[in-house]
Design brief:
By secondary structure, this protein is an alpha/beta fold. Helices cover 39% and strands 19% of the residues. The protein has helices at residues 2-16, 35-43, 54-64, 81-84, 97-109, 136-143, 168-184, 202-207, 217-220, and strands at 25-29, 48-51, 69-72, 90-94, 114-119, 149-155, 189-195, 212-215. The chain has an 8-stranded parallel β-sheet with strand order 7-6-5-4-3-2-1-8.
Length: 225
Amino acid sequence: MNLKDVQEKIQKAVVKADRNLQEVQLIAVTKTVEPEAMERAIELGVTHVGENKVQELTRKYEIIGDKVKWHMIGHLQKNKVKYIIDKVALIHSLDSYELADEIDKRAKQIGQVMQCLLQVNVSGEESKYGVEPKDVDELLHRISLLKHIEIVGLMTMAPYTDEPEEVRVFFKKLKQLSNDIKEKKIHNIKMHYLSMGMSNDFEVAIEEGASLVRIGSKIFGERNY
């Protein structure tokens, strides 16, 4: 019921924004969700899952494997890259050159090019990870020289609020930043995806151009920590 409700809300937001449903991918966030519940969601049509922690991702990957595409959406430390490099389809949380360099090295070792999103802190909150908008251009130019990593879009986390309209401005900013980067035509930098919007604000994010929405509690229920 939850999954159906989310899918219907995605569809309504897409129609409202005069967009195509194929432009928006649901990523079911499985933080604290056990493999049994994940298997049920997969049976019901979930094809992409997002994990916040490397340890949780690797543990669940052992059970579920390649039935879904895995996304690393949480903060990623350099020393943990080696554990997920051969398991994930997309890293959403690239936020420094040092991390990009490590991903590049690990991807080279397994003969792959790792697709990543640059995480941008558009809200300016100190509690949030991500590159400041003013530093994005310089960082992208440095990363563009690496051979085994490919930037394919941007990601952000809006401030948590019960009133989604309050965070619309941050989604607009990320979309504008994406458009600005596209116009610069930086070698090896693509802007295919905007990862923005979570359980409490995904409809507004879709209206502002989100292509990847990260939804957990609206599907699996409130988390029990």
